[in-house]
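Intended use. Records like the one below are meant for learning the mapping from a protein sequence to its folded structure. Do not use them to infer anything beyond what is encoded.
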Amino acid sequence: MTVIQKKQTNPIAHLSAEQIEELGHELDAIRQSILDSRGADDAAYIRKAIKTQRSLEAASRAVLLFSVFPPAWFVGTAGLSVSKILENMEIGHNILHGQWDWMRDPKIHSTTWEWDSATPAEQWKHSHNELHHTYTNVIGKDNDLGYGIMRVDEDQPWHPFHLGQPFWNFVNMVFFEYGIAAYDLELGATIAKKKTKDPEFQRRLKQVLGKIKKQAAKDYVVHPAFSIPTGSFLPTLAANFTANVVRNVWSHSVIICGHFPEGVETFEKRSIDGETRGDWYLRQMLGSANISGSKALHVMTGNLSHQIEHHIFPDLPSNRYAEIAPQVQALFAKYGLNYHTAPMAKQVYSAWHKVVRLSLPNGWLATTKPANAPQQLAMLYKMSTGGAKVRRAAQARLTQQARKAA
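Structure written out for the chain above:
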């Protein structure tokens, strides 16, 4: 079981209510120190990031005017891919969190910024800032945990359709911006509840379709059209599609590293009843994971490589996360908590391993060896084609075998 409240060894059982509140006070002090020291250097950072991104995009699109020549195609596509990643991760994501609202610059403000993504900023801010960051890793409350299409915890009943979740996750990764748009729109739930005619849903759907139309026109009509005189229409169209896919794959990979690797904690819905400020901090700390790496990696992830620090302080400027990370890690050590960090390749592997593991019945992957593979596959077939009674009986056997193997 991964829900922290049902673990045999609860990683926070050693903390008293008083210690949790003291932890909260210490984190408040770190946050206040950054709020008090924000200034010209921080403002210069985000303005430089925006200027760099826009210059890189303009230069890449200029090169793509001659993308009929392979070297120009590769250079332009690479530059445009990096540009789109920077715009979404370090710039758009963090501006929409309100990290730069203190500058009072209407051009760099969460209420006016619209990003290069299929999902409208207004809808994303609701689903991400208001819901995900409030109910982080609470099963049944945080839909970012699996995006409503994947099984994310052993306590969730297994059904045969979960076998497809590695494929769904792959498709979601390739077309991530559209998956997020559908998720922000709550498309699946709305269809299931037969509320597609609801006026509010229709308003939001119109907003999403309008944004998608605008994005598609920019990338697949306007900019390729500029390349017609050089015979580069199709190569430029292909370059734009490739850059969008690269951006989607990168963004998805960064985001699943933040909350989905093995060892990241999930929480029961009832556990947040009466939650204090200290409790909220603790949930963010244990429900997030970092990516270790270079400064360039941190920038390319939008500093979501410091996911722990971001979830504790979502409204602090992203360029300050590296500065406070050692202080936060010291508090983890002080209070006997696990600071979950690893290189990106390891975190991505761990997250995908969890996707595959939870697509199968509990214990199936752990108990399957080359020697017993035929029998295990036969059991999986029976569980997939049989009814609920067959699944329960087979699951009980699997659980017993897994316990013995452990």
